[in-house]
Every structure is written in C-alpha cells, then in structure tokens.
Amino acid sequence: MKRFALMLTIGIMAATVTGCGSGADQSTGSNGSASRDAPTTQETGSETGMANPWVDCTREEAVTFIPYLFKEPDGATDAAWSRTTDEPPIVQMKFTLDRLEFTARAQTTGDENRDISGMHYDWAVSEDVTLAGWAGGNMPARMHRYAGSDEYADLCTWFDFETGVSYSLSTVADDLSGFDIQAVAEAMYDAEGAEALMNDADVAEHVPMDVSDCTSLKQIIDKLRSGSGYVKTVISGTEVLMVTDYLFDFDGGGSLMAVDADVYYVGDDGLPKYAGYVSAGGTSYPLAIKDGTLYVGANPYMKKMVMLAGGLVVDEEASVEYGTDGSETYYHRSDVRDVSADENGQVPDDTVLTGLFEEYEEAEAIKFEVVK
Fold first, then answer.
1. DSSP classification of residue 222
2. What is the model's pTM?
3. CA–CA dist 241, 262 (Å, integer)
C-alpha cells in the first residue's frame, strides 16, 4: 500500500472517536456510486430526490459524448454503460473487478473541476496523488476513503484541464483494507484513445477562455480582447457562438475568416455551455458551414462536425496518410454512425475524401465580426 494506507489508519481512529460518516448520511444509489442496482434516483445523504434520467448506452455511444474516455480495466467483468439525458451528459460505466463493484463516471465540465461521483460521505481521509498514464503520467487526482463499522467507501476524482472533462471512480464494500483504488484508475487509462486524440495537437493543447462568470452569450463576446472575432450561426439546429483569437482576410475583399474557434451554446438552464474547439489546417481552409454542418479541414483530411447532446462530434471524417515510399492509405471514420471502413479504419481509395472536399467547396466560409 501507498502512503494513503498510513493516512487511513489515522483517519479510522479519528472517525471512531468523533463518530463521523454514519451510513445513514451516505449516498449509495445511482448518483451515490457503487450501487448494485441500476441507477434510477438521485440521492443526497439519506434523502431521495427527483428521478435521474439515466438511459443505457454502449461504449461506442459514450465516446460520442466524452471522446477522451476511460476503458474497462483488464480482468473487469459485467461492464454496463449508461448516461444521463441532460446536457452535457454524465457517462457512467459499472463493472466488477476482483469481486468489488465499481462505478466510473465522466462529464465535460469545461473550466470547472467538478465532483460528479454523487457520493456524500464524511471522508475519514483524503490525499492528493498523481495518476500514471493519464496526462502522460502527470494527472493530479484526489483519493478519499470512508471507513465505517460495517461499510467502506473509496473515491478517486481527477480533472483533465486540456479536455475539460471531470472523472470519478468509486466503490463501496464491507471491507477495503489493503485496497488501492488508484491502481484501478490507472488501469482504466485508454492509451489508444488518447493517442488518437493527441493526433490533433492543436485541439489537445488548447485551453478555452474561462466563461464561468457569464450568464449569456453576449457576456462572452464582451470578454473578448480587441482584434479577436465572433459570429453566431446554427449547427445541427442549435444556435451557437463561435469565437476566435485569430482572423484573416481570405480573399482580400475584407471578409474576416478563421481556421480555429471555440464554440458555445445556451443550455436548457439558460446559461452558456462550452461545446468544443475546432481547428483547421491552415488559411487555405477557413471554417465553413453548409446545411447546419460545420466543415473543418486541411490538405490531408476533412471533417464534418455536428452538435450532439451539447457537444461537437465528428459526423464524418476522411483522411489520407502518405508513406515514405509514395504510397497512400485512406481512412474513414465517424463518432456517431457506422462507416464502410475496415477494422483499422481504412478504405480502399480516395472516394470518400474527394467527396468531402467537394462538399467543402460548396459550403460557405464563415465570416466573423471583429472586436473593436
């Protein structure tokens, strides 16, 4: 065990003396993590509130909401995925490992590091740790343990500021002595998924502006620095605000365009929400839109982006990879539907890629207003 175990011993002694963390004060339902039943209610302490709108889903569907998602750790069984129907949704995976039942969650929370576990314990001990794998082995995390007379609870939470996603992993059992939840969180790191995301270095390194104090899209515009740009448009039937730090005159006619932008929209609660960041490959390919679909491209690829459940996702992407021997390998993928590519994402020729570039040529380049 790590230093957490030593701290736990002290915490158990303190809990025994003070009587902290009685079972009646904890949440172990659907929003309380590690429940053995399907999530149906949201609980706070011993009180049950309004029904929490959870629906079953697959991991493939979950990735459309949280592209930078965890995976089942090796040896896990009985994995079951679900999500909430609000915006942005919480994605949840329940699984069993070494006879313990776990609940893992993720939610895009923008600039806010949020505890999405739903657990409400008087923690006997808490400790800051660093998760291996995640963020190149430099992911800050926080571990908590409750140790009662007849129940233990462990929680690990972490936040990826680059992607704006909050995560939690929890378990509840009769006894967790000697157990290390940090090791399970590290085993859930999806190296392949992370590599795919990091292929777009601009997106991976981008940190959006803090708009947590804004109550309207106009207030976001008011925060923009002089010389930056903004535009309101519609993607997938949703009005969005696109903002950018860099504008250029594409054709010399005075129309200002952009190759990257942060995208915001108004959620059901009437407050601005962050939908994501898009970045094209250069000024030859300004961001464009057609029939409510956003086109983002460069010489070797073209993407069609749509809004789904409060976030921007790839409806369709085609690309080409050039080999050192002059060979060309073509790819086709989608975050939201099946495509005709093989198990490696490859397609036999450039038909799809050529088709997407033809669609892009018919799309209208987005013209931005400049902040004076």
1. H
2. 0.49
3. 8
Q: Find the radius of gyration of the CA atoms of the chain.
A: 23
Between CA 204 and CA 187 the distance in angstroms is 22
| Residue 259 CB neighbours (<10 A) | 23
pLDDT tens across the length of the chain (372 residues): 344 443 444 344 444 433 333 333 333 333 333 433 333 333 333 233 334 589 999 988 888 778 789 999 999 999 999 999 887 889 999 999 999 999 999 998 877 899 999 999 999 999 999 999 887 788 899 999 999 989 999 999 999 876 788 999 999 999 999 999 999 999 999 876 665 555 554 555 678 888 989 999 999 999 999 889 999 999 999 999 999 998 888 777 888 999 999 999 999 889 999 999 999 877 888 999 999 999 999 878 999 999 987 789 999 999 998 877 778 999 999 988 889 899 889 999 999 999 999 999 999 999 999 998
- Alpha carbon 302 to its chain's center: 22
Q: Long-range contacts of range 95-102, CB-CB < 8 Å, 24 or more positions apart?
A: 97/73, 97/184, 100/171, 100/173, 100/176, 100/179, 101/34, 101/36, 101/171, 101/172, 101/173, 102/34, 102/76, 102/169, 102/170, 102/171, 102/184
How many residues in the chain?
372
Backbone phi and psi for residue 149, each to the nearest 5 degrees, phi listed first: -70, -30
Q: Dihedral of CA 260/110/103/173: which sign?
A: positive
| Cα–Cα distance measured from residue 13 to residue 6, given in angstroms and rounded to the nearest whole number | 11
Output the CA–CA distances (angstroms, integers) from residue 183 to 64, 129, 179, 282, in the order listed. 26, 11, 9, 42
* Residue partners of 127: CB distance under 8 A and separation at least 6: 3, 4, 7, 142, 143
Nearest to 84, CA basis, from 127, 126, 35, 51: 51
CA dist 227 and 347 (Å) reads: 42
Q: SS3 for 207?
A: coil
Contact 231, 278 (CB under 8 A): no
Contacts of residues 358-362 at CB distance under 8 Å and 24 or more positions apart, as own/partner, are 359/290, 359/295, 359/302, 359/304, 360/285, 360/288, 360/295, 360/297, 360/302, 362/290
